[in-house]
Write a structure and sequence with these properties.
The chain is of the alpha+beta class. It is 53% helix and 15% strand. Helix 5 crosses helix 7. The longest helix has 51 residues. 18% of the residues are buried.
Length: 427
């Protein structure tokens, strides 16, 4: 709006200023022409029927018509000479403004006046026009700013409300701004707030019910296993104890996930030691890998920590390890290190899960994180769930290498890293 107003002011103001300049000059020249017309009338009044002025010309009336600092030159027919010249006023005019009038073949008038007064008046007129233009521009800018704020401020309010809604603030906002389009957006946000709050409440209730039922069933299973732990066969007792340990870990994982679902703020979490959380996952999956004739190893720096929910990290890495067991080959390596993406200020903790299998086919790679997509007969939920768990804490899960497969979990809040982006270790 300000750009349009400025351009409009220039398009109209410059020609108007030039017109004012010419208008002052035109007025001045018209005044000089009027004076010459009156002088010509005086000269004609003194002519005889033969068109001659006998004797000396009476210039008293003409003297009164000459401006201060001006010079009037009269050429008139006389019997003595064909034409006689009379000068009235100052001898010489500096930077003159000249107007002439012809009175037949033998007579003429020439009036010279200083141009400085006219230029001063022109500058005054230009100044008045410029002030008027600036005043109109100022008024237009004021109106434009007021109008823009009348639209921008409600937009900021609606954007802030949408941001609060995204952060989980479902309080209604009855304010309306008198702009039909924005008021409709506010109405939609009101409806969305009610709907989202209801859905979240139902989902939390469902999560609580499901977790309760799962814990109840797991408790029943543990009681049965506890009875088996009293069996006389040592192998049965060993298997029962291993199964009870699995039940205990599953119960703990359910409790952690339920608590994490109620606490969505990952920014204020205290960093947790990543290696300590992953040791339990690796120990749990070493036996299935051994039965498959493969090896699962964990490497990394024990001092590395990241602000992430422990249960989410364990579940996400569990999905990746399970995926490597089902679809990969050779040794599966879980490594923990620091990386520095090109758009990150600080190093990030990266958990990499790699195997030595055939990897991911090119046509499947863009879709492996899509929910419900599977090329191996599975449900297609695991990798999508793993990515959702990591992203819930501000991290990112990516397929960094297709053959052999290498999945990378970047822990921390940062811009997404695209496949093939440059990732370097800090020096």
């Amino acid at each position: 709006m300000l750009t349009v107003l400025t351009i409009t002011t220039m398009v109209l103001g410059i020609p108007l200023t030039y017109t004012a300049w010419l208008w002052v000059e035109d007025i001045t020249r018209n005044d000089l022409q009027n004076r010459l017309q009156r002088v010509a009338a005086e000269v004609i009044a003194q002519e005889q029927p033969d068109g001659m002025v006998p004797g000396d010309l009476d210039v008293r009336a003409a003297q009164a018509l000459v401006p201060i600092g001006g010079k009037l030159t009269i050429v008139y027919p006389s019997p003595q000479d064909n034409a006689t010249r009379v000068d009235i006023g100052v001898p010489e005019v500096d930077d003159p403004l000249v107007e002439s009038l012809s009175m037949g073949t033998l007579g003429s008038l020439r009036l010279e006046v200083p141009s400085a007064p006219m230029h001063a008046t022109q500058r005054q007129a230009v100044a008045v026009v410029a002030l008027a233009v600036l005043a109109s521009l100022g008024a237009a800018v004021t109106i434009a700013v007021f109008t823009a704020r009348r639209v921008a401020d409600p937009l900021r309010d609606v954007a802030a409300r949408a941001a609060r809604l995204a952060m989980g603030d479902f309080r209604p906002d009855p304010r309306r701004h008198g702009i039909s389009e924005l008021d409709r957006v506010s109405d939609v946000l009101d409806s969305a707030t009610v709907e989202i709050a209801g859905r979240l409440q139902r989902e939390h209730a469902l999560v609580a019910d499901v977790s309760h039922q799962l814990r109840s069933r797991l408790t029943a299973v543990r009681l049965r296993l506890d009875e088996l732990s009293a069996h006389k066969d040592p192998e049965v007792v060993h298997e029962a104890e291993e199964a009870m340990a699995q039940v205990d870990r599953l119960t703990e994982a359910i409790d952690d996930l339920v608590r994490a679902s109620r606490d969505e703020d990952a920014a204020d979490r205290d960093p947790i030691p990543v290696m300590n959380e992953l040791r339990g996952v690796v120990e749990e999956w070493k036996h299935p890998f051994t039965e498959a004739g493969r090896t699962l190893v964990l490497t990394g720096d024990d001092s590395l920590s990241a602000p992430i929910t422990a249960s989410r990290l364990r579940e996400a890495v569990t999905v990746l390890v399970d995926n490597a067991l089902m679809h990969g080959g050779g040794t599966c390596t879980v490594s923990v290190r620091t990386v520095r993406p090109g758009n990150a200020r600080e190093p990030l903790v990266c958990v990499e899960v790699a195997d030595e299998g055939h990897g991911v086919r090119d046509e499947l790679a863009p879709h492996i994180f899509d929910r419900g997509f599977s090329a191996g007969g599975s449900t297609g939920v695991g990798l999508a769930l793993a990515r959702a768990l990591i992203e819930a804490d501000g991290g990112r899960l990516e397929l960094q290498r297709r053959r052999p497969a290498l999945f990378a979990v970047f822990l921390g809040s940062f811009a997404p890293i695209r496949l093939g982006a440059s990732v370097t270790e800090p020096r």
